[in-house]
Amino acid sequence: MFSSLLNAFRIPELRHKIFFTLLIIAVYRFGAFIPVPGVDAHALTQAFSATGSTSTSLLMLNIFSGNALSNFSVLSLGIMPYITAQIIMQLMQGVIPAVARWAKEGEQGQKKITQITRYVTLGLGLINAIGYLFLFQSDQYGVTFSASIPYLFTCFVIIFTLVGGVALIMWMGELITQRGVGNGMSLIIFANVLAGFPYAIQNSIATQSFGFTALVVIVALLVVPGIVLIERAQRRIPVNYAKRVSGRRVMGGQSTYIPLKVNGAGVIAIIFASSILYFPAQIAVFFNVDWLTGFANNLTQGPLNWVLDFLLIVFFCFFYTSLIFNPQDTADNLQKQGGFIPGVRPGHNTVQYIKNVLNRITLPGGIYVGLIAVIPSMLFLVTNDRLIQTFGGTSILIMVGVALDTMSKIEAQLKTHHYEGFFEK
Predict the structure, then answer these.
(1) Contact assessment for residue 318 and residue 336, using Cβ atoms and an 8 Å cutoff
(2) HSE-up of 257 (CA within 13 Å, CB side)?
(3) Which of these, 85, 77, 158, lies nearest to 125 by C-alpha position?
(4) Which residues sit opposite 245 in a β-bridge?
(5) 250 forms bridges with which residues in the sheet?
(6) Are 396 and 222 in contact (CB under 8 A)?
(7) What are phi and psi of 180, to 5 degrees?
(8) Does residue 425 lie within any of the structural domains?
(9) Domain hosting residue 234, numbered range
(10) Residues with Cβ < 8 Å from 286, sequence gap 6 or more?
């Protein structure tokens, strides 16, 4: 692995992409500590530490924002508005025919979807910005603005700054995707989750004990190889190609396979499920009503959260897998290229066979992801240790999934330059 990492830095193009990615993430983390103008950030941090821990929804939103929310920084809204906008647009593909057509039009259609996703993200960011402004001015937090600046002007500047922060996050994520390595939005989530570990470990040692904290960290590290094993697991459907004679050349006659991942949705299913469960919390922040806040907290902790989280994760595993892999298109391409699955007739039988295999491996994959997300939440309710929530299954799965995806993309570039990749034996 270390030799492969050194090989990555020997390739000038790949080395520049890695440094560019690290630079953008560093700029993002720097922005998480810049408070919005006109607010006493120190007083807000103290108030958030005192009251924010009682609200599970706010605590999780703070984790996903990389503690930017507790600092009320220019990047307080984090990546969640963009993730929510992506969910809306993907759901629209099954509802609005025009959006479904765009998804099949290739690059031009994706540009239209991306542009609309940006506008939806800014709209959700505006709603969240107004909500957080009202929340942090409530008696619970008691944030006061500078008396030398008109109140309405200060509110406008804060809202404009927060929405601008959402646009900046989108821009940085797209820059990483286009000019760096890996998926930009996923790497930003990775950086946010990772940023919360030092404080979570310090808090766990202070509230529990060093031995308990060490045990949690060791168990989490032992779980990582199992997650890597399942994330790399595939069901390979064998494919044979008939021989064809073109002039003096004999084409085909080869054997290959169709790789189907056990967890085809990756970390997307768990991010989508979390976004839906924490969306009421964002609405509760906007209205700041007691019953709505209580409902949002019930959705983000306790038995109701466990059941809904598990079911939503399994649903999104099937939903996202069906979006990225179409058995009908695969069967048509095989037939056009003279390929066939041994023992299965081309056409409808091939489509049905692929669907059955996909459903059989997606169900256990969804159950695995659901258990990874739910079990640490149960342990957190028993121990009330923030490290379990921060370093729980959701965080580990996100980090492992993003790390594997990034390593795969680096490996692909290494192979083009005839270097061994990370996954080579």
Answers:
(1) no
(2) 8
(3) 77
(4) 250
(5) 245
(6) no
(7) -110, -150
(8) no
(9) 2-416
(10) 127, 128, 130, 131, 134, 135
Domain count across the chain: 1
Mean pLDDT across 92-99: 80
Q: What is the CATH number of the domain that holds 272?
A: 1.10.3370.10
Within a domain: residue 421?
no
> Taking the CA atoms of the chain, what radius of gyration do you get in angstroms?
24
On whether the CB atoms of residues 134 and 140 are closer than 8 A, the answer is: no
pLDDT at 53: 47
What pLDDT score does 54 carry?
45
Half-sphere exposure of residue 127: CA atoms within 13 angstroms, side-chain side: 19
Token duo for residue 253: 């006659």
Tokens of 311: 């079911």
For the chain, what is the mean pLDDT? Answer: 79
For residue 238, the cross-strand partners are 257
Rounded CA-CA distance 63/202 in Å is 15
Asked if residue 423 is part of any domain, the answer here is no
Number of residues assigned to the chain: 425
Does pTM surpass 0.70?
Answer: yes
The dihedral sign for the CA sequence 391, 263, 276, 137? positive
Contact partners, residue 352, CB within 8 Å, separation at least 6: none
